[in-house]
Specification:
- The chain is of the alpha/beta class and about 375 residues long.
- The protein has twelve helices and 14 strands.
- The strands form three sheets. Strands 1, 2, 3, 5, 6, 7, 11, 12 and 13 form a nine-stranded mixed beta sheet that branches. Strands 4-14-8 form a three-stranded antiparallel beta sheet.
- About 30% of the residues are buried.
């Protein structure tokens, strides 16, 4: 009997299942990459902050020079010292550094003070004024020689902006410049009526009759107003003295002399409020601003033209001819500035930040152009 062969086992090689990505694996990889990127960013920021701290600590590091005009190969230089924005305590570091560098550089033969500022506090304006006078006159022992000083005005050079430029031997304003505003003021908010309406009061315990003068919860007495007026008048007299000393043609009598102004009517046929056509009276130091054309007519400025006109006037004053190199001192940017924007200090997230409010509402006397008080107060924010 034939034997039936035993069945052979057959392996059926089914194809291996296709590899499928794991969501858990993807999430892990993504998390790893994000953490790695965050870690790298933290390292870069830390290096930037370290770099900034090191740069700030090294106050002897010179500012970079930027070519403005003239001959790039010339040895003799004209330094363009720039003052921009509101003039306030704590905001003058770059201006001070420019002045110091220009004073110590023996190759700098003349100075152009480029002003684009509505002014600021009287203390900061006076501080900058004294440093500019020292830059112009040099040291008493002539270790730092005197240097001719010419001022160049940008879009606005008013009040404190004009105050710091008064020592210049020649002033050039842009055709569109607003300048003047020789005056001073202080303002104190008064919410007495509002507080009374809503039942809010302030209990004050004081020693000294006028110790709480200027409180926003009460109106000033006649005596308190006079005390504040005396302080404003003293600052005003200082302003007049600075202008008179810097520009001898503008005597105190001329600064205070009244003159009549006839309103400008561009087109006689154009509709115009009749009240705005009536001649009115002004005086040079009334605190108001003037256009460049008016300022030249009133001798507040000597010439009208761009920065290059002022540079050429400085070259002439220093007898440099055409062989000079005008340079400016731009503010340095740190790595942190480039990473985080124009400022390496993050702005306050709240308008109600206590330090910000304290700085904004601190009473001050101002050398600042009309309408710029809020700008000045906001510039004081930390």
């Amino acid at each position: 009997m034939s034997q039936i062969p035993a069945p052979q086992s057959h392996a059926y090689p089914y194809p291996a299942p296709a590899a499928r990505s794991s969501w858990l694996g993807c999430a892990f990889a993504m998390s790893f990459l994000l953490n790695l990127a965050a870690g790298a960013l933290v390292v870069v920021l830390c290096l930037g902050l370290f770099y900034k701290a090191a740069a700030d600590a090294d106050s002897s590091a010179p500012l970079p020079e930027k070519f403005v005009s003239g001959s790039k190969t010339a040895t003799d230089k004209i330094a363009v010292v720039t003052v921009e924005g509101v003039i306030m305590e704590g905001l003058l570091g770059h201006a001070h550094k420019q002045i110091e560098q220009a004073a110590k550089d023996g190759a700098v033969k003349a100075i152009v003070l480029r002003v684009n500022s509505p002014g600021g506090s009287i203390t900061a304006s006076d501080d900058l004024y004294r440093k500019i006078v020292a830059l112009r006159d040099g040291d008493a022992d002539q270790s730092i020689p005197a240097k001719p000083l010419v001022a160049s005005f940008g879009s606005v050079a008013a009040s404190g902006g004009y105050f710091i430029a008064a020592p210049a031997q020649h002033i050039v304003a842009e055709r569109s410049t607003m300048t003047g505003s020789i005056g001073v003021y202080a303002s104190f908010p008064n919410i007495e009526q509002l507080a009374t309406k809503y039942g809010v009061s302030m209990n004050t315990i004081k020693a000294g009759k006028i110790k709480d003068s200027g409180s926003m919860f009460k109106a000033m007495t006649t005596t308190e107003q006079q005390v504040m007026q005396d302080m404003v008048d003293d600052a005003y007299n200082q302003f007049l003295e600075v202008v008179e000393k810097g520009r001898p043609r503008l005597t105190r009598a001329k600064l205070l002399a009244r003159f009549q102004v006839t309103p400008i009517v561009p087109d006689a046929k154009a509709p115009r409020d009749e009240k705005l056509k009536v001649p009115y009276e002004r005086y040079l130091a009334d605190g108001g601003i003037y256009t460049a054309i008016e300022a030249k007519r009133l001798e507040l400025v000597d010439d009208i033209g761009p920065l290059d006109v002022a540079v050429k006037a400085a070259a002439k004053a220093a007898s440099l001819g055409t062989n000079y190199r005008a340079v400016s001192y731009p503010k340095q940017k740190t790595i942190t500035d480039l990473l985080l924007g124009s400022s390496s200090v993050p702005p306050s997230n709240s308008l109600l930040d206590s330090e910000r409010l304290q700085s904004i509402f601190t009473p001050r006397m101002w050398y600042i152009a009309p309408g710029y008080e809020l700008v000045g107060r906001l510039a004081t924010q930390p």
